[in-house]
Amino acid sequence: MGSTEVAGVVAKANWNNANGQSNATGQALVDESGTATGATAVWNTNGIWNLAITDTPGNARMMRGYLDTVSGPTTVTVSGLPTNSAGYDVYVYADGDSPATRTGGYQISGTGITTANVNLTDAANTNFSGTFTQANNSNGNYVKFTITATGFSITATPGAATDGFPRAPVNGIQIVPRV
Questions:
Q1: Which of 45, 47, 58, 128 could tie 70 with a disulfide, CB 3.0–4.6 Å?
Q2: What is the structure's pLDDT at 71?
């Protein structure tokens, strides 16, 4: 995404683009104004894929590509967030290209975080159409966690799938400081 493109449930610009199946060295992250934060992200997955939607700026572009959990979990770890006594809302966007209904488990954990889990069901033949729907052990295309920590790990674990090919995609992660 370009730095001026705005996306997310909390519409913001300057998204950090993650490329490839893994990054073990840490990608430096910028905030919504494009300023370096000192935070980094590392990730590991077994595949990458795209939704069959038009590549247009903003929400559609953010949702189009995703880390794909082929035969195993995807992990994304963020560290070095600035201390914020009010904490952060962490949005994990998830929508896979599928003719089947698939449920994935999304977990947040880390130092100072009470581990939390939310299931998200990605309905069959339903790709992102411009509307965000929060999943809370239900259908949707994002889950939300709240933390008061300077880092976290997201683990996306495939669950039930009506076609026998479980997935738990990760299209994007948005970290919004609470006030």
A1: 47
A2: 76
